[in-house]
Amino acid sequence: LATLGVMGGGQLGRMFVHAAQALGFQTAVLDPDPTSPAGRVSDYHIATAYDDEQGLAQLMQRCEAITTEFENVPASALSTLAAQRRVAPGPQAVAVAQDRLAEKAHFAVCATTTGVGPAPHAAIASEADVAAAPEALLPGILKTARLGYDGKGQVRVDNRAALAAAWVQLGRVPCVLEQRLALRDELSVIVARGADGSMVHFPVQRNLHRGGILAVTEVYPDHIPAALAEQAIAATRAIATELHYVGVLCVEFFVVDDGSRDGALVVNEMAPRPHNSGHHTIDAFDVSQFELQVRALAGLPLVTPRQHSAAVMLNLLGDLWWRNGQPVTPNWAGVLALPGTHLHLYGKHEARPGRKMGHVTITAATAAAARERALAAATLLGIAPWP
Ligand code: ATP
Ligand code: MG
Ligand code: MG
């Protein structure tokens, strides 16, 4: 029995473990939290810090190949592992995804062939940078270059005084100031690429964010204008290829008005791993993003995913476990009574507001039916309806 390892024990690691075990692999998870969602379902759980030498040695001893489930694994830890084991994605690719400036520089290079570039932006690493930031970037969003997720490490700024205050508020760390764009839509594309350069992709996902956190993903056949979808897929493939990427990669896009009927694409950021906007692939496709992560890591064939159902994914944040300051149990029985609902709970004990506790995917034969049931599920759970 071969063993596959994963750095990180969150819900993405847990779904990776499930997919790996289904294919007959053993798994090892390295996560400092002894009760982590992935560690609890894995064959082996190494509960040390990510850069602990003994922990890394144990992981290498157990595993033939190792992947990562969050982008903030210390790059040095991945390099240590990569010196002795197959690591996918590789440390260089993860290092680019860890740093918004490096990431945007990579997007800008790819834009010369794909035509899809990042939002106008500037590096902010000093008071002089604050003073010199182009006026055209305001109003903007100041984002820490590293370690942000779910909208954390971001401040909206309307003018230069606010920018100066935001940079202090974020701890005077290296940041990126991005122009705040009027978003018409948000999309994402997930690809899986093998060590041999073979690559497959999922269809374009449409994402709704609330408070900087993904709330709803909808994937219906042909729901995105074909030319826009093709361009997003081509841009994602180019971003992966130019990085010599191996594994599952998700790229997030904005759609902005440019006077054309469909609007124009701007590339936002990438995640060097399966993505929250791809969770519906477990239930609506004949191969999931997690199975493709396993296949890419193990050097098994990648196949083009086929969508067999229209799908809506609702994120279940910790807020749903509270009403008027009192703990409540969401109406699971009501949701499960709706045909085509697939409930996934991650086994996290503490339901903090904004924390990703689980998701529910609603599948149906048609987009209209999936939407209608998803809205019904949302009502039962206390999730606000969406346009
Ligand atoms: P994730 O959890 O996806 O990694 P993150 O914390 O890295 O999130 P971003 O993806 O940079 O954050 O931004 C979160 C959301 O904030 C975006 O999906 C979008 O809704 C909004 N947003 C970010 N940048 C911009 C921008 N330049 N203009 C307008 N809205 C933006
Ligand atoms: Mg991000
Ligand atoms: Mg994002």
From TrEMBL:
EC assignment: the record states 6.3.4.18
* A GO CC annotation given for this chain: cytosol
The pathway to which it is assigned is: Purine metabolism; IMP biosynthesis via de novo pathway; 5-amino-1-(5-phospho-D-ribosyl)imidazole-4-carboxylate from 5-amino-1-(5-phospho-D-ribosyl)imidazole (N5-CAIR route): step 1/2
EC category: ligase
Which InterPro entries does the record associate with it? ATP-grasp, ATP-grasp_carboxylate-amine, ATP_grasp_subdomain_1, PreATP-grasp_dom_sf, PurK, PurK_C, PurT/PurK_preATP-grasp, Rudment_hybrid_motif
Q: What does this protein do?
A: Catalyzes the ATP-dependent conversion of 5-aminoimidazole ribonucleotide (AIR) and HCO(3)(-) to N5-carboxyaminoimidazole ribonucleotide (N5-CAIR). Catalyzes the ATP-dependent conversion of 5-aminoimidazole ribonucleotide (AIR) and HCO(3)- to N5-carboxyaminoimidazole ribonucleotide (N5-CAIR).
What NCBIfam families does this protein's entry cite?
PRK06019.1-2 (NF004676), PRK06019.1-3 (NF004677), PRK06019.1-5 (NF004679), purK (TIGR01161)
User: To which protein family does this belong?
Assistant: Belongs to the PurK/PurT family.
The identity of this protein, by name, is N5-carboxyaminoimidazole ribonucleotide synthase
Record organism: Tepidimonas thermarum
In the UniProt record, the gene name given for this protein reads purK
